[in-house]
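Researcher: Before we compare anything, I want clean individual predictions. No alignment, no superposition, just each chain on its own. First chain goes here; please echo the sequence and then give the structure tokens.
Model: Echoing the first chain and its structure:
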Amino acid sequence: MHVVVYLDVLFGVNLLMNGMVLACMKLFLREKTTWVRWFLASLAGAGLYCMVFFLPFRKNGAEYGVYFILTAAIMIKIAFCVKKWRKWAAYIGIQYGIASVLGGLMNGIYYGIHSQEPWQSAFFAGVGRGYQGFGTAGFFITAFFAGLIFYFGSKAIFYKRQKDDGRYQVFLRLEKQTGTMKALLDTGNSLVEPVSHAPVIVGDLAGLSELFDREEQEQIKAFYKTGSYKGERKIRLIPYHAVGVTSGILISYPIDEVVLCKEEEPIIRKKGIYLAVSPIGISGDGSYQLLLHPGILS
């Protein structure tokens, strides 16, 4: 039995599916990439997949599997510029997981339409029967709706996760002083530096001891008592309004670098942010020392 393979069709289908998988990875992982890198990664994956027909591999052999794992690794490297090998390996697993989910959704949509009974849909998908008589247009429509379901599902998961978990580990650098502390995303924080309109994050004095020596801490305390500041660092005064307070002034410092981390992995690196120092604690239980401005996440 001879099977005719049309490489142009095979290439086009793989280009589409690779693009869908990488787009879903970007959405699911909240990763950064450009449209050019996304397209080049999809193109590389489709080309490498078509090349396998010209290589002396045994079907279902070990080298066959290694080849496709390397193909996935190359696509991830191009799309997301991953450097750490552990993250790289995790992304390969996630890529295959998302591809499996999309394939399952496509099977469910196709066999759900063409089968009268639910058990028939599960059976046909399990035995891997192809999309017989569905045509190219039908395949693309099925892929589109599968991607749409994944998109809205990922959006719902992300917003729930964002709502439940707005805590970060934050690294701050102020001149030669550095410090790492815990922070909470405060969606109600609208403080900006009046001149540059740069976002302002708020920390309590006790929690910022790594950034300020004892002399600087005394200067900050003196400012809130007398309104006079005799320190040598550049400061900005940030006006604010709060519940129960008609108005007030916070002393703030231009931060040289702010790095937000999740599970010890840097996810956002910013400059041009101001750090306002509160004379009182901002967390009742001491579980965080900073309140983040929402603008720092953009």
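Researcher: Okay. Second chain, same rules.
Model: Second chain and its structure:
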Amino acid sequence: MKKSVIISLIIFVTSIVSVAEDFSRGADISWATEMEATGRKFRDANGTETDLFVLMKQLGMNAVRLRVFVDPERYGYGEWCNKTDVEAKARRAKAQGLDILIDFHYSDFFADPGTQTAPIAWNGLNEEEVKMTLAQHTTEVLQALKDEGIAPKWVQVGNETNSGIVFPYGKIDWDKTGKDRFSKYAALSNAGYDAVKEIFPDAMVIIHLAGTETAQWFFPDFIAAGGKVDMVGFSHYPTAEEWNSSDESASNSNVNAEKHVKKTIADFGLPVMLCETGFEVTKSALAQEVMIDLFQRMRAIEGCAGIFYWEPETDGVWKPEYYENLGWIAYSKGAFTTDGRPTIALDAFGGKMEVEREYPSSLGIYSTDYTTLLATLLPIAGTSGIYSGRIDIAEAWQNFVIYDEDNRIWYGTDPNDKTHISSASDRWNFWIDSEQPRQYNITVDLSTMHWSYTYEASSELIISGGNEPSQYFDLTGRIISTPQKGQLYIVKRGAKAALQRF
């Protein structure tokens, strides 16, 4: 092996180790100034009003992400996220000693995989002029930061660029194959890359994609087309249905995100950053569990640089005034309350790696069409998160599901272990391994996420007292003259009635 190759490998391994030791815990709080302008206040856990950037540091974060729009005022959005606004927020981040990730959208408004609208002022330019203008825009913003003594640690040249940037100039051409489809996009992306390095040679330049599974089809052709990249950025938004799923098709699964991040690092020799994540603001208890799980998985990966929560300071109610023009609803994956306090969804960003669950008051056993309540499980006194109750199984192999109404979570069994409870989308229904219909005791332990059942030996509910003759009915209400052994009947004696198995 040549000496230069050995040195390169040493440098790469050293950088990976340093990234692992310096795991970034951050948030994109680009709405901060806009929210403040509309009167929003932020408070710590004690209710004391404080600056949002100060609060981020108090919560254990060591970095912020700030997006840049080209000319949002001309677009109609206002001054938010333009060069001046970004400078103001970057100064506040620096004052708190927070690392900074600058996210160039190369648009006047939000860019994402399906929307990479060219800035209004760039329309009508030829491809070479757009490349020069993109580089100039990048240089102007970064030079303004440098003049303030602010040096970003990372810079994204584009936001969620799965389909390219600055349409139509840098759109990936899906009518072509291999590296040819990436040629125009790579040229524009490289113009941004080179501009970053001119101002901040040590900044890590990120190519940012939506979905952790995308790197495998994206980077071979992008790199073959000459695309330059220092770090891979992903957006990963776990959902209540898929976050702990092991199904390979579950793109919102933490399990699969871990696999994809590991494979990206191994296949391309590039560190990875989760530039965006978030969870439903109305499910803070589950969000805490999901984020702790995500942190545990990512921190254990050599080469994973960190995690950024996207706009956690929102509450699912506030939204930019401009959204009214678009008919958009408020962003639903923040992590703050309406009175401006952080929720436990952000605990992992402060280093907390144990879940303190908020257990529901009860659990419901429902039919598999989610409509009929079959039984209720109540907490067992003296325990935490353990519930029990009885269910009458009227037919062999009867399936059912369990519902946490307080947190709005449907549970089934883990496809890989039927004794383990799962809320993932690929979960199976619950069932009891017995062909004998009868009454069973069900126990659910949410602290360990397991369940069990036992046959209720005293399921024959004999009606005591009285000399009145008994009447027997099947479960549809029809009178039965001679009960059959092993069947469940309604037994009526005088004014009393009960279920009884013969």
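Researcher: What stands out in the second chain?
Model: The mean pLDDT is 88. Additionally, The first helix runs from residue 3 to 21.
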